[in-house]
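README, section 4: Worked example with a bound small molecule

Sections 1 through 3 covered apo chains. Here we extend the same pipeline to holo records, where the ligand is supplied as SMILES alongside the sequence. The molecule in this example is nicotinamide-adenine-dinucleotide. Nothing else about the input changes; the structure line simply encodes the ligand pose together with the chain.
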Amino acid sequence: MELRGRTAVVTGGASGIGRALIQRFAREGANVVVADLDDAGMAAVAGEAQALGVKALAVRTDVADLAQVQALAARAFEAFGAVHVLCNNAGVAMWGGLESATHRDWQWVLGVNLWGVSETLAKDLKPYRIAVSVLCPLGVQTQIRQSERNRPAALRNERDERAAPVELIGRSLAPETVADMVLAAIHANELYVITHDESLEPLRRRFERIERSILDHRR
Ligand SMILES: NC(=O)c1ccc[n+]([C@@H]2O[C@H](COP(=O)([O-])OP(=O)(O)OC[C@H]3O[C@@H](n4cnc5c(N)ncnc54)[C@H](O)[C@@H]3O)[C@@H](O)[C@H]2O)c1
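The generated complex, written as structure tokens:
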């Protein structure tokens, strides 16, 4: 896919992987739309893209809010006429056990991480000739451990007791490396972007357990 002159929209574009994706799309000559809750971060990233010679728009968007996502789409179409790449990248992390999570924790994490981010889009969008790639990272050097910084006030807990972040297995990659992998997958129309081969063994063991369960209960 030729990206020069096309339009890429990246949610969570103000930091980390999203920021690296914006820079990568801009270097390919694509105009970019940065969608995030972090106004200062969005302005900085949009400025970086403009310095690379493309048009950049920053649209404050909470991806957990349907009206705001619809407004983002309207702004992007109004500014650029079409959208060719959409990265549903915004996401948050929190640590600690299920037993200590509050209802607001669930609302916050599911609201950001669940809405619209799903592998099934690949099948659903195929008739429209829209390709989907699913990015599955392990550790990446971003601000994900400080997700609380942009947590909406209404979803903050009354008591601020945070668990320490867990260590992910394997290497911790630079966001620019991950952005390169995403671009390669878009160009090659690949469904999965699995960033770490360290995930192979745990995934194999998981599927072996599922396979064993299916075979053991075969009727
Ligand atoms: N960094 C890692 O090790 C790692 C590992 C696995 C998955 N991921 C996923 O990668 C994606 C990118 O995260 P990152 O690591 O670059 O983290 P990051 O914290 O550096 O960037 C995430 C961006 O999302 C924005 N955001 C948060 N809530 C939002 C909302 N409701 N609406 C719009 N924007 C919102 C934040 O303001 C931030 O700018 C996330 O989906 C994350 O879950 C990251």
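What to look for in the output: Residues 209 and 215 are 10 Å apart (CA to CA). The first helix runs from residue 16 to 27.

Section 5 describes how to batch many such records.
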